[in-house]
Structures are given as C-alpha cells and as structure tokens.
Design brief:
The chain contains eight helices and twelve strands. It is of the alpha+beta class. It has three domains: 64 residues; 135 residues, no CATH class; 71 residues, no CATH class. Strand 5 and strand 6 form a beta hairpin. Helix 1 packs antiparallel against helix 5. It starts with a helix and ends in a 10-residue tail after the last strand.
Length: 359
C-alpha cells in the first residue's frame, strides 16, 4: 500500500508539473485556430437566399427543425450553413455555396484537405487523407461523427480532423499535443473508462492514515468514558435499590406498628433567670423595675458574683460594661494579684483593696 501510494503521488506530481509548464516545453499556440486562412468573396456576393438554402437542405434529405442558417466564408468560398435538429440524432449540418448554389455536403476529400490546410503553418503537402465514419472527439459528451483525418508532411506530424458535413474542425493534433494529451490522461488517470475518478487513489492512503490516527486517539478516551459510565450506572442502580428497600421497609414498619396518639401536655411557667435582674433600688431608693428607672442602671446579681468567685473589685468589675480595672506596669500589686486602682464611669478610685461580701 505504501509503495502504491508513493507511485501515485510521484506520478501525479510529475505529470502536474509537465501539464502546468506545457506551454513553455512542447505546446504550441493556435490550437484549433486558422493559421493560413483563405479569403473568400464578400458577404454581399451571395446570390442564394437563406430560404433557398433551407429548401435545398430539405431536398437533400435533411430532416428535423431548422435551428439556424449562417452565411460565412471558408476555404475561399462563401457558404450557407443550415443546421437542423433531428430528435435524438443531434444537430445535422448542410453546406451550400452561396454564390453558385452548389451543394457541398457531404464534403469531398479534396475539399476537406483545403479546409485542413488553413490550420497548419507553412503550407505543408498532404501526406494522407483517411475517412472515418465514427470519429469521437476529446469532449466527454462528444458523439461519433463522420469525418476526414488529413495528415501533413511536417516535422511535428500534424493531423487535422474535419467534419464531413459541416466542415468544422474536430481535432488538431501534432507530436507536442499528443504528448500533452498523454500527460493529461496520466495526471487525471483517465484509463479503463474512468474520468478523473482514479485521481482519488493518490489520496486514499492519506485518508486511511488520518482515519486510523483518529481511531487510535479516540479509543483510550472511549474506554475511559465507558468505565466512567459503568461506575455512574452502578452507583445509580445501587442508589435506586437502596431507596426502594428503605421505602419498602418503611411501608412494612408502618403496616406492622400502627401509630398510637399521645395526650397533649401543656407546660406553663414564668421564665426565671438568675443572672438577669428585673428590679433594682439604685437611683430611686425603692424597689423599682429596671424598665421604669429613668437612668442607665446596670445591676450585677449576687448569684453571678458567687458563680464567678468574684470577691474583689477588679474581678467583679469584669461583669459590668461600665466599670474597668486598670493596672499600671510600674505600680505594685497586692499579694492577691488585685489591681491597685480602678475606673468606674470614667472616675478613678484611690489605690486600695476592696472585698465584696455579696450582701
């Protein structure tokens, strides 16, 4: 496969280069063009009308609908060319001399050679004239046509193919053009009835290489994806089974043990807090609720001091947000570790030790 692919690629590249540079190597300009045209009478010299030419075509056995009648000059004559479409037979042509009224279709070998000489440079002598009943041109939709192949004695061996009825050139060949046509066929692999189809053979190995590379790249990813899907599926199945079993067990328990209603129990008790006093005699000298005292009073109950073991002013002041105990870094402290000074409501107390009995 690798060798065949290399052969296809190398041949395609080489023939492509030859085909591209053919105008500079072996291809001559003027393909299917007249190199030595023969002048004919002017168009005003026509003595036969278009209706007469069409009637003559009918008399000559041409059938079908007339497509057009053209007055043109060729190989030194003024001609009427009548084209008729005859169903599946395609277009038929009929030639008539517009000056003398002579019927020219089908052409003779001598007339075909005169037409062919206009397409060759240098006026070389005619070597051979071959009549062909079914010539097929290079066009893909060309039909077999009656024609004359005229060969000339020249270095490049030119050959001109002329249609027998219309005098139209069908092929223009010589050595250089034959080489070019062969290179074109080789480049496009136009063999065995294929037309540009075998060109894909050069790209088939590359496509196989790309396809196999993609398969090798995707295979591990697909395997990992399958494993992940298996794990997810297994987990989902286990979750569904567990949920189903739990639901079934709940239903079984509900069926085996009926629900027994219990009597309603109401508990009514006032809230009691040991640490949040609601009444105080500070400020009013009477037992008054704290909400009715017109001042900011903060009371620390005895229970809180007992629970905190706050027996000094410094430790008891920590329970109030309005009092703070400070200790200077250079001031001496008492043996109990209590501060020598305290600040209440922004006023400092003299340094002394204070004990709280809780009463």
């Amino acid at each position: 496969m690798a060798i065949a692919s290399a052969v296809f690629l190398v041949s395609s590249a080489c023939t492509g280069l030859l085909w591209a540079y053919s105008p500079y190597l072996y291809w001559e300009e003027g393909y299917m063009r007249k190199k030595a045209p023969m002048a004919g009478p002017p168009l005003t010299a026509a003595a036969v009308s278009a209706q007469d030419a069409m009637a003559a075509a009918r008399k000559a056995g041409r059938t079908g609908q007339v497509q057009q009648a053209t007055l043109r000059s060729d190989f030194g004559r003024l001609l009427w060319e009548v084209q008729l479409r005859a169903g599946g037979d395609g277009v038929q042509s009929f030639l008539m001399d517009a000056v003398t009224g002579e019927l020219l279709s089908p052409l003779t070998a001598g007339q075909a050679s005169l037409i062919a000489q206009q397409y060759v440079r240098g006026h070389p002598p005619v070597e051979d004239i071959i009549a062909e009943s079914g010539f097929v041109g290079r066009s893909g939709n060309a039909r077999p046509s009656p024609a004359y192949r005229v060969r000339f004695k020249q270095a490049r061996h030119p050959e001109i193919v002329i249609h027998r009825d219309s005098g139209v050139i069908l092929a223009d060949e010589d050595t250089g053009r034959r080489i070019h046509f062969f290179v074109t066929r080789l480049h496009q692999y136009n063999y065995f009835g294929f037309k540009k189809t075998l060109t894909a053979m050069a790209g088939v190995p590359l496509l196989l290489l790309v396809a196999t590379g993609l398969v090798m790249w995707l295979r591990p990813k697909l395997r990992r994806a399958r494993r992940g899907m298996r794990g997810i599926t297994r987990h989902a199945i286990m979750s569904i089974v567990t949920a189903a079993m739990a639901s079934l067990a709940g239903e079984v328990c509900a069926q085996e043990k009926p629900v027994v209603p219990l009597p309603e129990v109401n508990v009514n008790a006032p809230p009691v807090s040991r640490y949040v006093p609601e009444r105080s005699s500070v400020g009013t000298k009477t037992d008054t609720p704290l909400m009715d005292v017109p001042a900011s009073v903060q009371s620390v109950p005895r229970e809180l001091l007992y629970d905190q073991s706050a027996f000094t002013l410094g430790t008891s002041a920590a329970s109030s947000s309005r009092a703070a105990a400070t200790t200077a870094s250079s001031a001496p402290t008492s043996s109990a570790g209590s501060p020598r000074s305290s600040t209440v409501m922004g006023s400092s107390t003299p340094p002394r030790s204070t004990a709280i009995s809780g009463r």
